[in-house]
Design brief:
Structural class: mainly alpha
CATH topology of one domain: Serine Threonine Protein Phosphatase 5, Tetratricopeptide repeat
Oligomer: single chain
Strand order of the largest sheet: 7-10-11
Order of helices and strands: EEEHHEHHHHEHHEHEEHEEEEEHHHHHH
Number of strands: 13
Helix content: 40-55%
Length: 486
């Protein structure tokens, strides 16, 4: 299988589509892509589907989302560079509806993907396309649309539920129940027509694992515990996914497309399709770190002025024997050969979970993990605990993840109550998913987001568990009501 990447796509003109340098899609000659017939043939619908994937897989916007989701928590910190102007708003809980990153990365791009999915679904029945391909395209479009709404719900709560291009421009937000029902029913409906994992035509396109993984996380974040138990069992029953043996190696270029990844966004080390998070994670003048000797700086790489840092309290929460700690740099050798102690400055350790030895300028080729099998196991353990309290099954799931990290298992003697095990799970998720953009949602679900911020001296308020609807959307669509507190 090949990654599919879209370098340029001009809808209703001439699509230029690439799977990879070895596998290039042959499109219908340009003359056939006129506004009147672009959506009547398979090539035109393929272009539209890949456009939806392109908006979903933002690449360079990914590091913005990861940082926004982590610097407002007990995990991450930021200083320096132009990005700090935005990230300081999230560090200090002073964000507002005018923040451009919220508009661009969490709202507009999502609705662009939803728009493309809606257009495909409205036109595919009348297109010249075989039935099997049409069923697959419809399932993929519905998956993308539902996955985008799932993400937006976690950030904003209910949003306008645009399911066709004929709805009025001024569309009110859906109700809580309408939003919950739509996301769940749409994702469930796609499963029969999506391929089994490993059988997709190109790496990055939707499979049954994608739909079940996104559904599981949506049900988890909306605390539908019994349904989480159901969907995680379905994922396990696929018999495909497994824990990758070495945590550090899981994220390396040579191990992409491994069976721990249910959902991942493909990247290449070319503009604009690269993973750009590592550029801000490098400390100044980075050459290499003693704990990551194979990660050697090259002159072709970029090292940004903005600094993606980790909080000391979070780093110190790791067991010293935890193999996941190895991706965190606390000292390094600079380009002058001097050893630099990052811990001499507060909250200054760095996460080098992602690194591409062949990175070019800003662009690392590491795929972005969205849902991993370890997440499925920990989600199931959390749901089981919320339903019945500590159990051996829940502990076995957690311990599978801990075993990979080289840590002893938790026992029933350790997990003395539902609350104690809940805290164990929250800690485990922090260690496992650092730099993957999950900490904010985890703290919110565990009712710790506001509490932890206040403990850091931040004036966090209950309304901060949801982000504001962007000001541009409120101005364009008067039917939308702003979230409380903004």
């Amino acid at each position: 299988m090949k990654k599919f990447l879209i370098y340029s796509l001009l809808l209703f003109t001439v699509p230029i589509l690439h799977f990879s340098c070895e596998d290039t899609l042959e499109v219908t000659p340009p003359g056939e892509f006129s506004p009147g017939n672009v959506l009547t043939n398979e090539a035109g619908l393929t272009a539209l589907l890949y456009s939806a994937y392109q908006f979903q897989n933002q690449n360079q916007g990914t590091k913005n989302v990861i940082n926004m989701e982590e610097v407002c928590t007990d995990m991450a910190f930021n200083t320096g560079g132009g990005e700090n102007r935005t990230l300081s708003l999230f560090i200090n809980f002073t964000w507002d509806p005018s923040v451009g990153w919220i508009q661009n990365n969490m709202w507009s791009s999502r609705y662009n993907a939803i728009r493309d999915a809606n257009v495909l679904l409205e036109n595919i029945e009348d297109a010249d396309i075989d039935g099997e391909t049409a069923s697959l395209f419809k399932a993929e479009a519905r998956y993308i649309r539902a996955a985008e709404y799932a993400s937006m719900y976690v950030w904003f709560g209910p949003v306008p539920l645009r399911t066709s291009t004929t709805q009025e421009q001024n569309l009110a937000r859906a109700s809580e129940q309408e939003m919950l029902d739509f996301v769940e029913s749409e994702l469930r409906a796609t499963i029969p027509d999506l391929p089994d994992p490993g059988q997709e035509a190109q790496w990055g396109r939707a499979t049954k694992g994608h739909a079940l993984g996104i559904l599981t996380k949506f049900l988890l974040n909306t605390k539908q515990w019994s349904k989480v138990v159901e969907t995680t069992q379905q994922i396990m029953d696929l018999g495909y996914y497994e824990i990758f043996p070495e945590f550090k190696d899981l994220f390396k270029i040579e191990n992409e497309q491994n069976k721990e990844l249910l959902v991942a966004w493909p990247n290449l080390n070319v503009s604009p399709r690269g993973h750009t998070f590592p550029n801000g994670a490098f400390p100044p003048g980075f050459s290499f770190a003693p704990n990551l000797p194979e990660y050697q700086w090259r002159s072709t790489m970029a090292n940004w002025a903005t600094q993606y840092r980790l909080r000391d309290e979070f780093v110190d929460s790791f067991d010293p024997a935890d193999q996941r700690l190895v991706i965190i740099v606390q000292e390094y050798v600079n380009l002058n050969g001097a050893t630099v102690d990052l811990r001499s400055t507060p909250d200054n350790s760095r996460s080098l979970k992602f690194f591409d030895p062949d990175a070019l300028a800003n662009h690392h080729g590491n795929d972005v993990p969205i849902v991993r099998y370890s997440d499925v196991l920990l989600s199931r353990a959390e749901a089981l605990n919320e339903i019945n309290g500590p159990s051996q099954e829940a502990l076995d799931l957690i311990n599978t993840v801990r075993q990979r990290a080289g840590l002893p298992g938790i026992t029933l003697a350790d997990a003395t109550s539902q609350e104690v095990l809940r805290d164990y799970i929250l800690q485990e998720r922090g260690w496992e998913f650092v730099s993957e953009g999950k900490r904010r949602e985890d703290l919110i679900r565990h009712d710790k987001f506001i509490e932890f911020a206040k403990n850091r001296g931040i004036n966090a308020q209950p309304h901060h568990v949801r982000l504001p609807i962007p000001a541009a959307e409120i101005n364009a669509n008067p039917a939308v009501q702003q979230n409380e507190g903004y």
